[in-house]
């Protein structure tokens, strides 16, 4: 099978329980929450073999590392995410690759220079936060998007597994979206304590009351995974059903890496053919264009809903550019407040903005409370939902992507309501431990061993999760003072991917550090009534994250765009 093709089914090998004592639960009610995917810290599973992700190990000749890595220090990633790594995992990395590479400082310099030129020439760019208008005026204040100099290694079996899961998750989202009662019931307690989820549910209830059915349904999703080093399992982090970012720039990073390996592959001992092709943006454009065709109004447009200031605008512009260029579909770009001011519902139910009928609304905003600073934005969201326009996503698809629903779907016998047994088995293999805070035994365990868990509120967009001591404190506080507010959170097993040496390029400067990667697989789903028009895996996003810590405090960490080197 060629690279980029993903249809084989994967056998993970045999996993068995040998000991359930670490949770010391004897009751069947608790036992059914155990998941064979938990590492031995949760339950003792067979010893690990090798882990899935790792940066291609580079042996630097005559070059000092810019950051020394202490395996026991907590590392922070991005704004708030924090991960602890264990040095012992390092030893498994070389098994993954043909051989550790040698890279001279001269070659490193050349690679970085070539990569920066390529990025500038090919639109691998974001707005520069140092320039005031960079989030509003295209072409003003651009800087290359942060990227990893070389792709990160990933075992082909994980890649195929993740690709294979995509159409199943696409279908799952659609089926769950049709079960309004399930969504309302699952989120009913969260609704009471989380104002944002509550507003989304209100819109959903209104649509249920008027029996509004979405006949044409479009989903542009991204399912994110990490490979747990201890169990060697590819585990899902989350499924994004709204505003799945980077379909545009991720394709460029794959091209960048292929270019660098074409130029310097011999010196590096790497083959550009091992970087899978990435057509995420073309396929997303195709899905939007096909949805537009289904709407069947030649003069209608596709509307991109953006934030008033958007430094990641080029990622979005790539998509609208391809819609125009390849599919001759016109696009417009509006904020929610502009939609409220300029939009109207016509008598036939269609949505018009400044006199133009909107065939498809593609949300790249609207996933966070910050996107609704006033009632105006909520009015716009409601107006869109009430209209006949195709929503990407509809309010139901949006709700299916919430973390609470992820946790509900992981409960025993829930997936079975929506999928066949074979599909259920495939999805379960990638489910990490997920619990509501009602589970007193797990909550107790999380208070004792906070480093093994992540506490997640119902938020999207990064920077919201709670780790370590903060997690412990929060759980204690919720237990003592704010019992109801427990419903605003879910607990998740913390996944520990293998870390390895990486070169992360930000603002023209190369940082050498230990890093971990998260794989995202894009999926497109388009359906008109009974006819599934598209249900496909659409390329990928690799993100690599790094941070440094020292005794005095925590240095700022960062994540960069990356691609995959299949091994
Ligand atoms: P968001 O909707 O904010 O993106 P995520 O669930 O994706 O929320 O969490 C944000 C980041 O936190 C992820 O990209 C990942 O790096 C980290 N993370 C989330 N869940 C886990 C987990 N269970 N184990 C380890 N890291 C996690
Ligand atoms: Mg995420």
TrEMBL record:
**Glutathione synthase substrate-binding domain sequence ranges:** 300-400
Recorded metabolic or biological pathway in which this protein acts: Sulfur metabolism; glutathione biosynthesis; glutathione from L-cysteine and L-glutamate: step 2/2
Q: Which CDD domains would you find in this protein's record?
A: eu-GS (cd00228)
Q: Which reaction does it catalyse?
A: gamma-L-glutamyl-L-cysteine + glycine + ATP = glutathione + ADP + phosphate + H(+)
Q: InterPro entries of this UniProt entry?
A: Glutathione_synthase, Glutathione_synthase_a-hlx, Glutathione_synthase_C_euk, Glutathione_synthase_N_euk, GSH-S_sub-bd_sf, GSH_synth_subst-bd, PreATP-grasp_dom_sf
Q: Which SUPFAM superfamilies match?
A: Glutathione synthetase ATP-binding domain-like (SSF56059), PreATP-grasp domain (SSF52440)
Q: Which UniProt keywords apply?
A: ATP-binding, Glutathione biosynthesis, Ligase, Magnesium, Metal-binding, Nucleotide-binding
Record text on cofactor binding: Binds 1 Mg(2+) ion per subunit.
Name recorded for this polypeptide: Glutathione synthetase
Q: Which organism is it from?
A: Platanthera guangdongensis
């Amino acid at each position: 099978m060629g690279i980029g093709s993903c249809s084989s089914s994967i056998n993970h090998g045999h996993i068995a329980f040998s000991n359930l004592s670490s949770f010391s639960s004897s009751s069947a009610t608790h036992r059914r929450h155990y998941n064979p995917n938990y590492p031995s810290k949760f339950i003792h599973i067979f010893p690990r073999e090798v882990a899935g992700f790792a940066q291609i190990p580079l042996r630097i000749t005559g070059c000092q590392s810019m950051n020394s890595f202490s395996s026991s220090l907590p590392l922070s990633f991005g704004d708030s995410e924090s991960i602890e790594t264990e040095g012992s995992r390092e030893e498994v990395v070389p098994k993954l690759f043909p051989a550790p590479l040698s890279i001279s400082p001269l070659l490193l310099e050349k690679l970085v220079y070539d990569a920066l030129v390529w990025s500038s020439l090919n639109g691998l760019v974001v707005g520069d936060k140092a320039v005031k208008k960079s989030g509003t005026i295209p072409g003003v204040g651009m800087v290359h998007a942060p990227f990893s100099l070389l792709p990160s290694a990933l075992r082909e079996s994980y890649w195929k597994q993740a690709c294979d899961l995509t159409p199943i998750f696409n279908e799952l989202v659609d089926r769950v979206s049709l079960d309004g009662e399930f969504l309302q019931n699952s989120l009913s307690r969260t609704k009471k304590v989380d104002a944002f989820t509550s507003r989304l549910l209100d819109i959903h209830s209104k649509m249920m009351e008027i029996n509004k059915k979405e006949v044409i349904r479009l989903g542009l999703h991204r399912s994110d995974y990490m490979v747990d080093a201890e169990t060697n399992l590819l585990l899902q982090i989350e499924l994004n059903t709204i505003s799945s970012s980077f379909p545009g720039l991720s394709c460029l990073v794959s091209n960048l890496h292929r270019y660098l390996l074409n130029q310097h592959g011999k010196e590096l001992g790497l083959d550009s053919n091992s970087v899978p092709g990435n057509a995420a943006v073309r396929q997303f454009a195709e899905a939007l264009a096909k949805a537009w065709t289904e709407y069947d109004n030649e003069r209608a447009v596709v509307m991109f809903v953006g934030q008033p200031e958007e430094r990641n605008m080029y990622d979005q512009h790539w998509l609208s550019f391809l819609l125009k260029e390849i599919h001759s579909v016109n696009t417009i770009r509006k904020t929610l407040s502009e939609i409220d001011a300029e939009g109207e519902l016509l008598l036939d139910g269609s949505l018009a903005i400044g006199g133009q009928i909107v065939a498809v609304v593609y949300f790249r905003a609207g996933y966070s409370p910050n996107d609704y600073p006033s009632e105006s934005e909520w009015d716009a969201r409601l107006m869109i939902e009430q209209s006949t326009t195709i929503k990407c996503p509809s309010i139901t698809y949006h709700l299916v992507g919430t973390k609470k629903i992820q946790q509900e779907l992981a409960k025993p016998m829930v997936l079975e309501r929506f999928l066949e047994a074979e599909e259920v088995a495939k999805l379960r293999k990638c489910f990490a431990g997920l619990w509501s805070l009602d589970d007193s035994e797990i909550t107790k365990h999380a208070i004792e061993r906070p480093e093994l868990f992540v506490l997640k509120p119902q938020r999207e967009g990064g920077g919201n999760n709670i780790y370590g001591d903060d997690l412990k404190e929060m759980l204690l506080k919720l237990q003592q003072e704010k019992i109801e507010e427990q419903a605003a959170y879910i607990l998740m097993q913390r996944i520990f991917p293998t870390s390895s040496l990486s070169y992360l390029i930000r603002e023209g400067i190369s940082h050498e550090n230990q890093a971990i990667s998260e794989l995202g697989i894009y999926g497109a789903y388009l359906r008109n009534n009974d006819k599934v028009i598209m249900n496909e895996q659409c390329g990928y996003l690799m993100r690599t994250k790094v941070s440094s810590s020292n005794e005095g405090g925590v240095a700022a960490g960062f994540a960069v765009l990356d691609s995959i080197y299949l091994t």
